[in-house]
Write a structure and sequence with these properties.
globular; binds calcium ion; Gamma Fibrinogen, Chain A, domain 1
Length: 222
């Protein structure tokens, strides 16, 4: 592999730089204005045209502890790899989404009628603010796909600061949602959408089996 650092996964794909790879892997990117290089998982095959996977929580993969400090959520943690569990970091989310318009796709895997179904929801012009602003996010519109729609879990958290068990920015004055759910997230109340929360066994889930996995992916809007 060559040593060039692209600004984002999409660049590597569009410039043909990684076209020969036709695969996905861990890449190092250097977003414009960022003080450092970041590690991200890029999907570089010809069907996915340079998506970056910012977070993955998969029930079938080696489990990773998501009950982490603010510093860990800021810098990223986990096993970076295509079929692994990881959080890429709030800093890299901030730098890449503030350089150019980005689309965020939330993908949730459900098992329905014994078949695995990926359900999606897209968010246009998704931006994560800086640490100074608590990494709150904004987007211009939430766009469900024509088929296989997932619930819109993010609109309720627009503008809310990120929370971890050691820094409680949620809107629940009585509780610490990150501590209760052993995760970090843009919590409003403690019973909202939370893909980084502790995976629940099927016996206590409201659907028969699922969601199995959640992936947050981002792509430069072209
Ligand atoms: Ca609280």
């Amino acid at each position: 592999m060559c040593a060039r650092d692209d600004r984002y996964c999409t660049d590597g794909f569009l410039t043909d730089h990684y076209r020969d790879f036709r695969e996905s892997d861990v890449f190092h990117i250097h977003p414009h204005n960022a003080p450092q290089v970041f590690k991200v998982v890029c999907k570089m095959d010809k069907w996915t045209t340079g998506w970056a996977f910012l977070c993955a929580r998969r029930r079938g993969a080696i489990q990773v502890n998501f009950s982490r400090t603010w510093e860990d959520y800021k810098n990223g943690f986990g096993n970076f790899g295509l079929r692994e569990n990881y959080w890429s970091g709030l800093d890299v989310m901030h730098y890449v989404t503030n350089n150019r318009p980005h689309k965020l796709r939330v993908q949730i895997l459900f098992q329905e009628n014994r078949t695995n179904v990926w359900r999606n929801h897209d968010y246009l012009d998704f931006k994560v603010s800086s640490e100074q602003h608590g990494y709150n996010f904004t987007f211009s519109s939430a766009v469900p796909p024509r088929i296989n729609e997932a619930i819109d879990g993010l609109s309720a958290s627009m503008g809310v600061r990120f929370s971890t068990y050691d820094i409680d920015n949620d809107n629940d004055s009585g509780g610490n949602c990150a501590s209760i759910h052993q995760s970090g997230w843009w919590f409003t109340t403690c019973d909202g959408y939370n893909p980084t929360g502790q995976p629940q066994p099927p016996s206590v889930q409201y659907q028969d089996i699922g969601p199995h996995s959640t992936v947050l992916a981002s792509h430069t809007e072209l």
